[in-house]
Fold:
Amino acid sequence: MITKPKGCYDLTGVDAKKYQKIVDIVNAYAKIYNYKYIRTPLFESTELFKRGVGDSSDIVQKETYDFIDRGGRNYTLRPEGTAGVVRNFIEDKLYGNQTSVVKKYYIGSMYRYERPGLGRNREFTQFGVEAMGSDDPLLDAEVISLSYNILKELGLDVTVKINNLGSPKDRENYKKVLVEYLDKHINNLCEDCQKRIKINPLRILDCKVDSDSDILKNAPIISDYLDKLSTERFNQILNYLDYLDVDYEIDNNLVRGLDYYDYMVYELKLSSSLALGGGGRYNHLVSTLGGPEVPCVGFACGIERIINVMEDNINEDIDVYIMHINDEEKYKANILLQDLRLNNIICDTNFMNKSLKSQFKEADNMKAKILIILNSDDLSKGLITVKDNITKEEVKVPEDEIIDYILGVI
Ligand code: AMP
Structure:
């Protein structure tokens, strides 16, 4: 038997319904916040992610799916959505003559060669937004509240954990002090962190293995190394969030796994501390990828993780099941199905020449609210038998009133 690849999942049943609900809500929110849909390729030049996500990130170091195509080109299955959207922004010169912010959103599959586990897949789906062209803290607040409001609408009680990483210069200053401090304790850090100290020391701060160690608890904190402008900017974002009723907490150890962030970073976390999404400002990614200096901010949320924690109250019931035995009744069923569907009534019928008894069973399995029981006798008198499948009451309805009748009882 051929099975699905490790770390990948088929989306079916209730989970598929949840997925569709999430997508519907994302589309609706993107519309009212005026973000436009974009779809970029599932694979891009390997170079894009090396430069974009960052050579020193865990993702590029050990998690990408890289391949050489038949033409000898180096490609990578996208591990995240931002690099592709920014590549498009530069390639289509959307920065030229820019008079307003370019606001995009996406929904799509991402690929990371991670160890599969709860909330960690090798193929997973993210929705996210990128707002490109402004450094205004009002835009940071919009992006954070958009992600927060989508998750709230899905019934999830998340808190925004937020941190200020400062300007690249602030971070360089802080990095020196941090490395000096961590060097003294290097032997007591986990194996990964011993390597990170050379390539990405800030990542040590949110290492899951060392998170409880006193070494990290007593480490210098970045907020002591930020210039006045970074601090004012950050406080301005928090002021806006207060007004937007976003529940947030400052987390000085929040760094995030992607190298391109500066100034504000945040994550959307449940009380279990599971992260459903995150994002931040990336004011230097466009120039790193060959465009001009364009300040941007964005977020991405993981749909599978949301599905795992969403309530199971998705309704899969149908409104009407139509029962028929002979050809005349089947002919009528075909017409009625069309009329019901034109009126947005969810309906189904028997496609397998089942007995009446089996049709009752199938209707129950589909949780049909109403049964239309066609029989030639009724039809010859211009009537249709309708049964309420909950109260079990039966009535005969004139054929030309059937749609109005059904609309009145569902
Ligand atoms: P990131 O792109 O790393 O900032 O992650 C943003 C969100 O995507 C996370 O908060 C998760 O919800 C989701 N995510 C990241 N990696 C995975 C994965 N391997 N499997 C499932 N979801 C993931």
Summary: Residues 80, 112, 114, 119-121, 124, 126, 257-258, 275-278, 300-302, 304-305 surround adenosine monophosphate (CB under 6 Å).
